[in-house]
Amino acid sequence: MSKQGSSLKESLQNAFAASAILIAFVVAYLLFTNVMGNPVNFEGGNPKGSPLEGNYLGIIYKGGFIVPILITCLLVLFIFIIERAITLSRAKGKGQLNVFVRQLQTLLAEDKIEEAVEACDKQKGSLANVMKAGLVRYRDLQNDKDLEKDQKILSIQKSFEEATALETPMLSKNMVIFSTLASISVLIGLIGTVLGMIRAFAALAQSGAPDALALSTGISEALVNTAFGISGSALSIVTFNYFTTTIDGYSFKIDEAGFSLTQTFAASLKSSK
């Protein structure tokens, strides 16, 4: 891929991330105002009053203006879960990686380089792309009479490193969003909790009988924001750990296959002496 094509792809990915966050916020705001804030969810049809008994939409609406931000975090999380799942599925390729690696090892042991290249074309994905680059270099070096043995081994290792450097960023792209959401979701929820408690204590501080509606609204605001913040943070942590483990597995397979190819090439050079 050319530098211009790579730059364009990166720009499109950044635009996707920014657009996803903006769209998530708009959707969250519309849900908050039109669905949760619908008058049918409240006693007397008044959103400023108490929500109907057992009406969770009305209860969530009482969480205040922090709720749309927390809903935005959850929507962004779900958007990038789908994005990462699709990207990593493409990176995996069509078949099982373990089967593909064993197939390549068998073909290399039998010195069937062309068949191994065809297997990479069928498999597709990050591992197949890296292995294909190494196999093409392998084939070229077999016919090279000018380079020394050590130079050939270094050359094939370099081809692996270059191919891996092109594939690895795609695997870890947008992972920072999950770690960021894990941190800020609970913090934003905590802000909503504090604001709700301030409102509740303000209702208690009034002279005479406390304002029961203001007190319940403050407590509801605090609890709703706490629940959303903790839920968003927990889901983000679980998702981040899952995708990180998956990416590490892909990276291990790439390293394993690359090492196997390098060792096979080195062995073939010894046998040809």
What does this structure look like?
The structure is a single chain. With 273 residues, the protein is an all-alpha fold. The protein has one domain. It is built from nine helices and no strands. The protein has helices spanning 3-36, 56-61, 66-92, 97-109, 113-123, 125-142, 149-172, 175-204, 212-272. 31% of the residues are buried.
Summarize the structure.
This protein is mostly helical and about 270 residues long. About 80% of the residues lie in helices and about 0% in strands. The relative contact order is 0.12.
Strand content: under 5%
Give the domain tally: 1
Total beta strands: 0
- Bin the helical content: over 70%
As residue ranges, the low-confidence spans are none
